[in-house]
Backbone:
């Protein structure tokens, strides 16, 4: 059975996916390919600043889907936790300057304390951001990370935990981000996607693939179709849950970064049609 060609207008690429390109180059190439969205990593505008980046994006046909990434709330001391909250407040202002409606949160973890303590600090940290997020209308998306990152990157490892935290916080600006790389293995994934969709807090959807074997814990993600994740199955669950936003390609890969980025972008579009 052949699938219909998907709408490129609903495809978003993360700037880190084509990391060798500047923000200007990414905007130019994505737009020329008919891609509809861009998610911007902070390093992409570090030199020019968020206001200038926001102007460049506004002048392009691309829609900015999210700013990546905030978070890293758990810390061993109160002063470090307060600083993390201040850093995230600055990021909310940067998102507003960029025109990004959502900040993706990599929530963090502190290896000297328990995961449950870290999760409590994450919730407290997000709650401390709400007044500013509300005043600038910026959403905050909790992205669970694969448990191999539970040491330092995220004490939130499952969509169940992210959904529980979202429902405990009870703000329309707080929701979850589903990334197939982090969640594909979870037997509860379909049910938890449905739960988030039913309650209208499924904010974003990220895709790539899990290479077999994976040679680097961080920078060896695969293009869709290169690994063992049934991305189309998860995409079906996400759309059945009522999600109608962008499908975002987020790939950190030394292998792909070393390749010709224009050819890589063509492969991304092809894989989006055939393996997403
Ligand atoms: Zn992601």
Residues:
């Amino acid at each position: 059975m052949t699938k219909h060609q998907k709408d490129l207008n609903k495809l978003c690429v993360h700037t880190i996916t084509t990391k060798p390109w500047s923000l200007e180059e990414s905007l130019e190439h994505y737009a020329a390919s008919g891609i509809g969205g861009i998610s911007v990593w902070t390093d992409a505008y570090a030199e020019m600043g968020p206001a200038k980046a926001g102007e460049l994006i506004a002048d392009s046909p691309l829609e900015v889907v999210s700013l990546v990434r905030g978070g890293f709330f758990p810390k061993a001391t109160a002063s470090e936790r307060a600083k993390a909250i201040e850093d995230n407040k600055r990021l909310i202002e940067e998102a507003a300057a960029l025109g990004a409606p959502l900040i993706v949160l990599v929530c963090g973890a502190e290896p000297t304390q328990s995961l449950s303590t870290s999760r409590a600090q994450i919730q407290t940290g997000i709650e401390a951001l709400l007044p500013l997020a509300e005043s600038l209308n910026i959403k905050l998306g909790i992205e669970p990370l694969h448990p191999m990152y539970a040491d330092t990157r995220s004490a939130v490892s499952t969509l169940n935990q992210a959904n529980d935290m979202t429902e405990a916080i009870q703000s329309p600006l707080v929701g979850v981000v589903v990334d197939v790389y982090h969640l594909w293995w979870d037997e509860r994934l379909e049910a938890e996607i449905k739960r988030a969709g039913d309650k209208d807090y499924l904010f974003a959807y990220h895709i790539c693939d899990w290479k077999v074997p994976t040679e680097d814990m961080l920078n060896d993600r695969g293009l869709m179709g290169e690994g063992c994740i049934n991305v189309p199955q998860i995409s079906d669950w996400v759309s059945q849950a009522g999600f109608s936003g962008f499908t975002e390609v987020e790939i950190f890969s030394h292998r792909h970064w070393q390749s010709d980025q224009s050819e890589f972008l063509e492969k991304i579009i092809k894989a989006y049609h055939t393996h997403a």
